[in-house]
Amino acid sequence: MAANRKDSDSKKTGDRIVYSEFGLPNPAALERATPDLPPAQQNLRVQATRKGRGGKTVTVITGFQAKAETLSSLLKQLKAQCGAGGTVRENEIEIQGDHAQKLVQLLVQLGYKAKVSGG
User: 37-41 contacts: CB < 8 A, separation 24 or more?
Assistant: First the structure.
């Protein structure tokens, strides 16, 4: 009898929900809505920093209130204008190198409120 019980316990149930008190989980409902404000309503800060990057200078743009798709298309434009690499991390854009002044000019041309922050 113990052998049969062991065999039935070893079967995998997969992604099958056995019990749920409040219905099926909806992952879309758990995601936080990100407002996609127009550029004129966003206050951006541009800062060149080396902190935590092994001595390499990176220009960080913070203060975005936009969706990931908007940030990735903006990143592509800024990288092309600066001739440098970059990435999007946690609603911040990072461009390799010290391009603070140039990025502020580009962002203002695109309609954003941007200013240089820090040294």
Answer: 37/65, 37/66, 38/111, 39/110, 39/111, 39/112, 40/111, 40/112, 40/113, 41/65
